[in-house]
Amino acid sequence: MSPAFSSSARPDVSALVVTGIALSLTTATQIRLVGPIGAGELLLSLVTLRLIMVALVRRIAISDEARALGVALLALMVVGGASMAGGSWIAGWSGIGDSVDWRTGALVLAALAFPLLLVATGAGPREFAIVVVAMATSFALQFGLLGGWEKLVGDIPLVDLWYEGDVARFTALASNPNQLALGLVPLPFLLVGAVRCLPDWLVRPMLALAAIVVIAGVMTVSDALAVGWSTGLLGMTGVYLATALTAARRSALGAMAALAIILMVGAVGLGIASGVLSTPVEAIESRLNEGNQAGTRLTLWYHGLAAAAASPLLGFGPGAFSGEWGPFEAVEAHSTIVDWLTMSGAMGAAMLLFLWGLVVWRCIAARSYMCMAAVMALLAFSMFHNVLRQPLFWFFLAASYVLASASLGTRARLLAVRPVAGLLRSR
Description:
The chain is an all-alpha fold. It is built from 15 helices and two strands. Helix 7 packs antiparallel against helix 8.
């Protein structure tokens, strides 16, 4: 029998489309320490159950492009789970056991397991590209139908699409604009990066989708999304510049020409941004100054690091350990790496950084500039929010890695392995 998503066979497009829609709808709820569970989570649970059944009943199939990624995801699950278990014991021994919440740990591991199951059932560049397109189409429909209706007709009962204020903040079906922004921050880059994996007739529709996603992202007025996009563009430019200079190292004229072109494009981009995007930038500055949000985040990061320093090796288990007035006030640090450090200590943080480094290195090695920009934008966004519980975060990391692998031109070969030892050794 063929695997669920096999790069050597015709992909199951309907299942992949449902997966993309499910991922987009997870932004309709904002899972923190407790629920709620929405349509996206229910659909994703069904997709996950199907993948588990395929992994148990059939043979696990891992494409060469995703083999190292699968090992890294599995290692992070094992080390992170063990670290949180040990950290929870330390929290109980230290008298802060009430702050430990295993629901948080379960959500993190479940969200992390989803892309692992995808790659374990044979998903390759083509399959990830289809999911990305389905997800972007879902967001575009939410933007066009719901946002257009709200602006042209009026409020939609039971759906809060816009925040009140001088600047309308698009939220689609999300609980807040930053939750929606998590789904939008890497999508424009991934859509362009996925072009080579799909038929030529989809190129123009995908570019149109990317433009719609950018417009929707601007209308969220998310400061973290703005930082993410800026970081992605700068990172992509830096990698391209280094590559161009390396390729032209024997020709001083070629190096100067490459540098001049990049500087000219950057100057034009800044000029356009200063004129066209002035209103969103002013809105973001106003939001940062309102209630001293920047200062509050720095305080939460500092107190989160202080909490992590109290148990540097294993952390304190799943939960929230920062606070506005000091550590251990059951408040999140609102930073993925800081919150993960408090939960799993240096061991879990090292594995997470290894995964991030692996994805970044694959993008650089493949010279996949768009996937590189997607990763940088996603990681920058994660510095301002704890996104460990969100399946979107882990999926985007996996998608960036696998889509970048397509640029290497590696011929995918499926490895038939036993389910128990699926990601570690072939039969």
